[in-house]
Amino acid sequence: MLTIGVWSSVFAADNLVDLLLTSSTHQKALEDLDSTSSESKVALVLPLLRSLNEQNVKVHEFKNTRADLAVDAIKHMGHEVIPQLGALIVSSDEKNNIGSYAALAMSEFQKAAIPSLTRIIVQTTDIHVFRQAAGALVGIQNPSDKELGIPALIRSFENKDWRIRVAAPQYFYRFGIGNRAIPYLTPKLKSADIGTVCAAIRAIGWLRKDGKEALPILLPFLNDKRSEERFNFSRRESISIDDEAASSDMGIANYSLIELSATIAILDIDPKNDMALVKAIELMDRKDYRVRRAIANSLFKVDRPEAIPVLMRHFNDPDQETGFIVGNYILNTHLLPKKERDKIFQSIKKVYFFH
User: Fold this and answer.
1) One domain for residues 63 and 179
2) What SS3 class is residue 37?
């Protein structure tokens, strides 16, 4: 049973939360906050974020008055609340947004938040938690500070969870540090672990044009034929381009993931690279639908006339998703006359709308 003193403390905390989240009383509430103990400040973090969750504030709409006031209050509390924010990220799940709010608040502490965030990234095997922590790193403004998080992301290339291995390379692009990421990634291209090599290749590819200086190093991987038997898709292990393909239960892939990763990465960096285009056209005829799907996506973005004949052959691909990608490309490319595109559209209608 709660005593009167405890009830009084609970009421005071709730009241302070309301004051902090109200524009007209926010500033005065911050002054009151300064007179509270460190323990009291830490105890206020969850009620503040829970209030946002109860109001169903969407993370992508975070820049609204109530949310801004909450983050401002947490930032005002000082660095002692960083461990609490980290704990909320680690305990987060997809059922509510509290972990997402905690991650956004964490990034406001900039460099001071990095040790906690990198520790979470290295230790977690939960994709949701990983995304919250990595996203908070993205929110840190100083590029030099962001670089402190790169070693943790690279360690994620070998995470036990395939979804984290798939997601980690994308954050090198989101960091916005351009070619400054390359020196961290190129040593991993020499790894004996195939998954690490593929992840490093894809991370460089995600840099787009900023990865150009690494092209001479990537080109030899177009013909890398190392065995891929360790990637057993029935165990849901993959470094595939997309999560859906990675989760397929189709047995052992009969192709080189390094070849595939290098082809897509090089075309992402330099769509005019002829060596990668030739390899992409070759891979488009592989039996594994995941290869065809990934290459079709890549050729869609490249939009090269040399790719049209091979894409046309896969318009009625046994994998419907691959056929849809190819059909969408053909309907939108400026490289085919309108009359021919209209004719193809009639065929697409029969396949996808009247099947």
Assistant:
1) no
2) coil
